[in-house]
Design a protein that fits this description.
The protein is an alpha/beta fold. 42% of the residues lie in helices and 19% in strands. It contains 14 helices and twelve strands. It has an eight-stranded mixed sheet with strand order 1-2-3-10-7-6-4-5, with helices on both faces. Strands 8-9 form a two-stranded antiparallel sheet. Strand 6, helix 4 and strand 7 form a beta-alpha-beta unit. The structure holds nicotinamide-adenine-dinucleotide (NAD) and zinc ion (ZN).
Length: 375
C-alpha cells in the first residue's frame, strides 16, 4: 500500500489536513482521500479518477437534506434517494436504484456516487456491482462507521429475510472520498457506535491509535476535524492494509472480526433492536478480552485499559436480562463459522491478536457472564 500524508510526515499525522491512501485490489487500485473539504472538491476528484461523465448520486433523504448542497456540481442527474435504515437494506431497494437508472438511460459509461452511511454504501455498491454487470462506484461515506469501515474493502450487499448480508459481491470502489466535516450532523449515538470500531482497530493493530482515541475523546465527540482526521485516516490505513493482504477473508481479514462474534450474537438475540452495531461490538470486545485473560493470553492490565476506555465513551444498553447460554449458542449460527469451527479473535496485547478455533461454548458463556449477562 502506498501511503502519503500530505504536508506532514509519514509517521502518525498530528494535524495533517489531508491524507491519501492507495489500496491495491485483485482488479486494480483505488485511492482513499481523507480531507476536511473533500466533499466540496468531489467533482474534480472524480474527474481526476477518470470516472465516467454520467454520474448518479445515490443517497438517503436525511443525508441529502443535510449535505446534498455540497455535491451540487457533481452531476446534472437527479439524485436517487433511497429509504434509510437497516430494514431497507434489501433487494427491493436495489430494485429502485435499477428502476431510476434504467429510466434515466444510464449506460456502461455511467457511474454511481454513494453518499451516505453503511447501508446506503452497501446497497448502492451492490447496485453498481450488478447494473449492466458492473459499473464504477465511488463511496462518499457520511457516518463514522462508513468512513472507517464499510466504505473500504469492496464488500457490498444486502440482507435477506433469513439473515444479514447474505446477498452480496466484491466490488472495490473506483475511489473513496472521506470528508470528516460531514460527521458534524451525525447523532451522537451513531457517532459513538462508529468510534467503537476505531477502538477495535486500536486493539487489533495499533496501541498508538488506541491511546490517541482515549486522549482525544472530547475533541472527537465535538467533531473537531483536526482530531478526527488522523483517527479516521489511521483506521482506514489499518483496514486497507488488512484487506489488501486478504481481500476475500481467508486469513488475516478475520482479525477485523474482533468483538464481532459475541457482538453479532447479541444483535441477533435482541433482533437488531437494542444495540447499534458498534455497541454490540463493544460488548463483544469486552467478552473476547475476558476470555483471552482467562486463557492467559491477554494481560489483565490491558483488559482493564480497554474496559476503562469503553466506559469513558459512554453508557451502553443493558445486558443483565440476556442469557449468556443463549448468546453463546447464537454464535454457532454465525455466518463466519467455518466447517463447524468458530474462528475466535482474541487479543494478546493492545495492538495484537491471535485466532483460536477451539473456543468452547462453556468458555464463551463464562466470558459473557463476566461482562454482566445472566447465566
Ligand atoms: N461493506 C462492509 O464492509 C461493511 C462493514 C461494516 C458495516 N457494514 C454495514 O454498514 C451498515 C451500518 O452502517 P451505518 O452504521 O453507517 O448505518 P446507516 O447507514 O444506517 O446510518 C445510520 C443513520 O445515520 C444517518 N446518517 C448518515 N449520515 C449522516 C450524517 N452525516 N448526518 C446525520 N445523519 C446521518 C442515516 O440516515 C441513518 O439513519 C450495516 O448494514 C452493516 O452491515 C458494511
Ligand atoms: Zn463492525
Amino acid at each position: 500500500m502506498l501511503l502519503s500524508y500530505h504536508r506532514s510526515t509519514m509517521s502518525f499525522p498530528a494535524t495533517s489536513p489531508s491524507v491519501h491512501l492507495n489500496v491495491r485490489t485483485s482488479v486494480g487500485e483505488y485511492a482513499i482521500e481523507i480531507a476536511p473539504d473533500a466533499s466540496l472538491r468531489l467533482a474534480a476528484t472524480l474527474d481526476a479518477a477518470g470516472l465516467p461523465a454520467r454520474r448518479f448520486i445515490v443517497s438517503s433523504q436525511t443525508v441529502w437534506r443535510f449535505h446534498g448542497e455540497r455535491l451540487q456540481n457533481v452531476t446534472t442527474e437527479e439524485p436517487i434517494l433511497i429509504p434509510d435504515g437497516e430494514r431497507y437494506k434489501h433487494l427491493a431497494t436495489v430494485g429502485r436504484i435499477y428502476d431510476a437508472m434504467i429510466r434515466a438511460g444510464a449506460d456502461r459509461l455511467s457511474a454511481i456516487v454513494a453518499l451516505g452511511g453503511g447501508v446506503t454504501g452497501d446497497v448502492a455498491g451492490f447496485a453498481a456491482a450488478t447494473y449492466l454487470r458492473g459499473i464504477p462506484v465511488v463511496q462518499v461515506p457520511t457516518t463514522l462507521l462508513a468512513q472507517v469501515d464499510s466504505s473500504v474493502g469492496g464488500k457490498v450487499g444486502v440482507n435477506h429475510a433469513m439473515g444479514k448480508n447474505l446477498i452480496g459481491a466484491f466490488h472495490p470502489p473506483a475511489a473513496v472520498v472521506i470528508d470528516p466535516e460531514l460527521l458534524a450532523t451525525l447523532p451522537r449515538r451513531e457517532f459513538r457506535s462508529g468510534l467503537y470500531e476505531v477502538v477495535k482497530y486500536g486493539v487489533i493493530a495499533s496501541r498508538a491509535l488506541f491511546e490517541r482515541t482515549g486522549r482525544d475523546l472530547k475533541a472527537l465527540f465535538a467533531r473537531n476535524a483536526s482530531a478526527l482526521l488522523p483517527v479516521v485516516a489511521e483506521s482506514c490505513r489499518i483496514k486497507a492494509s488488512i484487506v489488501e493482504q486478504d481481500e476475500r477473508e481467508s486469513g488475516i481479514r478475520r482479525t477485523l472480526n474482533f468483538g464481532h462474534t459475541a457482538g453479532h450474537a447479541l444483535e441477533a438475540v435482541t433482533r437488531y433492536r437494542r444495540f447499534r452495531h458498534g455497541e454490540a461490538v463493544a460488548y463483544g470486545m469486552l467478552a473476547a478480552s475476558a476470555l483471552a485473560v482467562s486463557r492467559g493470553v491477554f494481560p489483565e492490565p490491558d483488559r482493564r485499559e480497554l474496559a476503562a476506555l469503553i466506559v469513558q465513551m459512554g453508557p451502553l444498553p443493558p445486558v443483565g436480562d440476556l442469557s449468556a447460554a443463549e448468546v453463546a449458542e447464537a454464535t454457532r449460527r454465525d455466518k463466519k463459522v467455518l466447517a463447524g469451527r468458530l474462528h475466535f479473535v482474541l487479543p494478546t496485547a493492545i495492538g495484537a491478536t491471535t485466532t483460536a478455533t477451539d473456543v468452547t461454548a462453556d468458555e464463551l458463556r463464562s466470558a459473557l457472564q463476566a461482562i454482566g449477562l445472566k447465566p
